[in-house]
Amino acid sequence: MSRGAEHGWAGWIARVERAAASERGPSILEGIADRVADHAFLHRGDSVLDLGAGTGLLTFKAARQVGRGGVVVALDADEECLQTLRVRGEAMGLENVSVHHGRMESLPLEAGSFDAVICRSALSYSADLHAAISEINRVLAPGGRFSLFEPLPGETTWSFATDLDAGRFMSMEHALREARGNSSLTRNVIRNMLESEFARVESLTVHYALSFAGRDEEELAEEYLYDLPGELGAFYVLKNVMKAEEIIESARWFARAASAGLVRGTLPCLFAWGGR
Ligand SMILES: C[S@@+](CC[C@H](N)C(=O)[O-])C[C@H]1O[C@@H](n2cnc3c(N)ncnc32)[C@H](O)[C@@H]1O
After folding, report:
1. Measuring CA to CA, how many Å separate 139 from each of 47, 159, 238?
2. Best mutation site among 57, 84, 104, 106 for ligand 1, i.e. most ligand atoms within 8 A of its Cβ?
3. pTM above 0.85, yes or no
4. Any residues with Cβ below 6 Å from ligand 1, and which?
5. Domains along the sequence of the chain with CATH
6. Beta bridge partner(s), residue 267
7. Spatial contact of 61 and 31, defined as CB atoms under 8 Å apart
8. How confident is the model over 48-98, as pLDDT tens digits?
């Protein structure tokens, strides 16, 4: 079990996109991106910042909406993601995308220079959420809008078949949230920070069901252990507070139960939008 170790964000995003594309029906990722773009109320000619743009899921959507007279700045801290984004954007013939390397906590961008800031699943990975949100406010022009989507790992819930003893697994889950320090990343934490910066804030929480029945056990254990790229992954984080054998044993226990359809999870996610 070592798959997650060599992947950075670009490989991780590619894996998530492949998984979403293999699902039946409309892609969940595309649906989320559509909703984030809709809540930003983009117009032709707008100047838009995609924060933590990754390989461009939201960037390209926004670039088509603002048209040739507008611009979308794709900002990310990961060079490999930005390189993939550049190549994809060129292949699509998009000429209104500008790629910037930088961190969301101290944006290398001028104050008041954007009509809208959009973001999908990137703020949660910031070491300083407060700084990142106040940077969004700084770079927005008067009347500017923001629209974002974030998973709420602090609100994930698991339910187990009644005859299972999930005590050890749940202790590990607790240790993981504590060690990551995002156990407090709930809808209220994000909303309160947004409300302290912006005049208008609206939000909607959506609950995604997590079901793993029939999935390959080994694959599920790997997904649990390497849920995020590199050293952000659960295994690396837990290794600081638990023995490696115990972590792997608990992950395998979870994978067996999940594959047998004895575990269900719920991941709440927040859409939030508004403006200055
Ligand atoms: C889950 S991916 C989402 C990417 C993209 N928004 C999407 O919807 O596909 C998270 C992204 O946030 C970026 N990121 C994480 N921390 C960051 C930071 N402090 N500043 C800028 N980007 C960051 C990562 O490099 C990664 O590309």
Report:
1. 11, 42, 37
2. 104
3. yes
4. 9, 13, 52-54, 57-58, 76-78, 81, 103-105, 120-122, 125-126
5. 3-275 (3.40.50.150)
6. 208
7. no
8. 999 999 999 999 999 999 999 999 999 999 999 999 999 999 999 999 999
